[in-house]
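Pilot study result, target chain (370 residues):
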Amino acid sequence: MATRIPGHAAMTALALLLALPVAIGHPGFTSPALAQGTLTKQQSDALAAYNEAVKNFEAILGQRRAQIDARQPLPNLPGQALYLARNRMLSAYKDLTDLLPSRIGGPNKYDIPPAYFNAATEPLLDEYTKLFGLMQAPPASAQKSDTPFKDVVDLGTAIARAKGLDAASAEAAGRISLGLFFAETNGNQTIGNARSNKYKGSLQTGISEDLNGRRKWAAIRPSIAAFDPALIQRDDKEEARAGNLDRRYNHWTSVRDALMNAHAEVFPQVPAIVKTLPDPIDQMKLFELIQIIPAPTKSALRSGNLLNYRVSDPRIMGFLRNNSVFTFGQADRARTSATFREILDAMWLFNAKFEQALARFGEVKAGKKS
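Predicted structure:
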């Protein structure tokens, strides 16, 4: 995570940036329509809505930063208002660029498609990321690991081997597991959740999910002990270290139980998944969907036609939207159904996370401390 900058300095810079609403997208650039004053009412309304969404996002960021810097009590779910304001900004920009394609600019450091995000507002997302880092900091009792990325890979690989996978497929399962860690927490250990009072830990599980994972781990332990006694010794040490601690706040047990709860039963399908989805990022996205919409994802896997399997249940579409899929802009939100290929393509907000996971996986495989 980037180094924290002083709150007042950050927001002053943002205020200066936002003082030019028409040119906010790309300094020195004005679309021909804007320059000629030929905006239709619909285009003008979209521009006004976008400028208002940016100002609202800035205001909420400033409010939360002031509360944190003053050590004031935060509201329940302090990240929810920030999340919704961010979404409104991206949505409003997509609505604007749908009407004024000339407003689509260049790439940005967050790898967000330029039709959805104006690179000049990167400082807002920088501050957003920093605030979530503060609001979701692990509790003082949390137990970190010196090798968090290696732990995830080791556990995913061992569980996959116990499920009968060969070395290559087990390695893919370890890589996918690391992707889940980045998808859920950006690679941060044992964190809380500023948008939920239920989900905590390195893979963001609830209490019942963690307990279910612990039960499943107890059943698979003997199989793992037969081929990886060193991993079981590590597990014994972490269990002793955790004592009566909520297992979600020990990195090792948090990852272990989360993988066993939701993903281990799907690991036997990794060879077929890799064949259908050769892109490692698509593989990670599919397993992240097991977190978001488990039943439809498992049904899609059983269908024999994964990529063309269509989801149309409004409740499931709602779960997707609550996790930044088909969330931004009127056109996306108007969708009533989608195939899994369309869903995977719409998970672009996860791309940067999974790229980081792939880089860390390479370091783990190269034997670097990770």
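One observation from the pilot: The two ends are 16 Å apart (CA to CA). A full batch analysis is planned for the follow-on phase.
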